[in-house]
Structure formats: structure tokens, C-alpha cells
Specification:
- This protein is an alpha+beta fold.
- The chain has 3 helices and 9 strands.
- The model has no long low-confidence stretch (mean pLDDT 93).
Length: 112
């Protein structure tokens, strides 16, 4: 699973039945929750008319042959979402987006 936020990119990899980011160990329960959320990710609304101008995507999540693109919807607590398989725009509440928009620090084990 590849995450990109601006110029920051990291990859969550399953290696020998353990999820890692590079050489960093991950918090198993956080990763399991993330994988479950990605597997069942649902949006809240269809956007009938594409936003104009097109919003700037700020986060990308890629896995298998699919990419999810997220753009904050100004003045709301929502995100626009678009997938790589369709030009259709969707809307999702921030709390739902936060289930999958994880930063590296959210996923890795704290260093002792």
C-alpha cells in the first residue's frame, strides 16, 4: 500500500507475514484496522456535477491496480474522492477519510 502526501511517500509492505514500512516495524492493530477500512471503503455521496475548478488532490493511496485520490472540500469537514478506475467524483466525511489517510507515524511502532 503506497501513500503519498505532497512530496512525502511511504510504502506499507507485507514481508514474511509482518507489515513494515521500510525497516520500521508497524503497530499491528493500526495496520489491521487500516487494511479493513481500505477493503470496505465507502463514500457518503455521489457528486453529480464535477467541482469546478477541479480541486487539488492532497493525498493518494495506491494498492493493487487502484488509486484513491483525496482533495479537501473547502469550508466543510468533507473530502472529494476519486478513483483511478472512474472519472466519477464522490464525497466522504472527514472521519471516514481519516480511517484510511494514515501517516507513517500513525502506523509505525514508537521507537524506544
Amino acid at each position: 500500500v503506497k501513500f503519498r502526501y505532497g512530496d512525502t511517500t511511504f510504502v506499507l509492505t507485507l514481508k514474511d507475514s509482518v507489515w513494515v514500512i521500510g525497516k520500521d516495524q508497524t503497530q499491528e492493530w493500526v495496520v489491521n484496522s487500516l487494511i479493513g477500512s481500505l477493503a470496505s471503503f465507502q463514500t457518503d455521496e455521489f457528486v453529480d456535477t464535477p467541482p469546478s475548478p477541479s480541486p487539488r488532490f492532497t493525498a493518494f493511496i495506491s494498492f493493487s491496480d487502484l488509486q484513491l485520490r483525496f482533495a479537501p472540500r473547502k469550508g466543510t469537514d468533507k473530502f472529494y474522492v476519486q478513483t483511478s478506475v472512474s472519472p466519477q467524483w464522490y464525497e466522504v466525511q472527514q472521519w471516514r477519510a481519516n480511517q484510511v489517510l494514515k501517516r507513517k507515524k500513525d502506523l509505525t511502532k514508537p521507537r524506544s
